Amino acid sequence: MDRGMKPDTRELAALASGAKLSRAQIIGLAMALAAALALPWFISDYRTFQFTLAVIYAIAVLGLNILIGYNGQFSLGHGAFYAVGAYTAAILMDPGGVAYYWTIPAAGAVCLVVGFLFGLPALRLEGLYLALATFALSVATPQLLKYDAISKWTGGVQGVAIIKPDPPFGLEISQDRWLYYFSLAVMLLLFVCAWNLLRGRTGRALKAIRDNPIAASAMGVNTALYKSLTFGVSALYTGIAGALGAIAIQFVAPDSFNLFLSISFLVGVVIGGLASIPGAVFGGVVIVFIPNVAEQVSKAAPWAIYGTFLILFMYFMPTGIWGFIRMLYARFARRRRAG
After folding, report:
1. Would you say 176 and 52 are in contact if contact means Cβ atoms under 8 Å apart?
2. How far apart are CA 44 and CA 48, in angstroms?
3. In this predicted model, what pLDDT tens digit does every residue of 142-156 receive, in sequence order?
4. How many Cβ atoms sit within 10 Å of the Cβ of residue 190?
5. Which of 12, 98, 236, 329 could form a disulfide with 92 if both were Cys (CB 3.0 to 4.6 A apart)?
6. Structure pTM?
């Protein structure tokens, strides 16, 4: 590539910092929000349901991105935290009779504790060893959910069915549209919280640990505490996504939370863009829609088409979709100033 065509790294750094939004970025966010709010009125309920899943997966992808992209810890087990959040919501709603909206913070709290406790022994592991430990967690979780001793709560292999909630206040909209707006509101709240968390002192500490843990420790950063808390916060986000997913799908079963779900979250992180909050939205869309597109292209070998799509994404967008957008924006801004 010609040197003159490369993006200015200083511009990319300024865009990535998120310390101060420019006028163009504020306008872009407002337009994106307006499009998201209007979307359900122009598509069918089934498509609305698909976009609801994309919003939910975006929350899970952001949780994993906080762990991998910002803190440098690798995980193949976030499908387990998604399952814990989903079962927490299902158990509270079905036998417990708890309102669906109260299950969201409950699932987040449970997964925060579980993630923090899992993060403590994981402190001794790094790189491939940590990946193997989280891989084991993802593989073991469906089998643990089928265990007879807890089957009266989890439903065993049969799972737990949930009644889809009706819109509140007598709103005359479909259940799918209401769940889309509810999930979108939760996603926006969590994204704002992540933005505030990662742009401050905590975010700088996480990046320091990711880039050079020895230097970070020498500068007074409590690496053990930050790593464990990051695991907990990452699990909290994924657990909330799991609770929303259970409410939207109306059913949870052990086999729904297999290893492929964890791999899908990882795919969403990489394709959307590492260490980028907006990239999680693109990651969620990729998780939901790319397999559907691959199946429409070839019903005989959909996973071969899916793999081809992933290869093309990585070849043409090595920094992810959001990184590609930032690069185009930086080039446009530089040329506009030069002109």
Report:
1. yes
2. 6
3. 999 998 888 888 888
4. 21
5. 98
6. 0.91
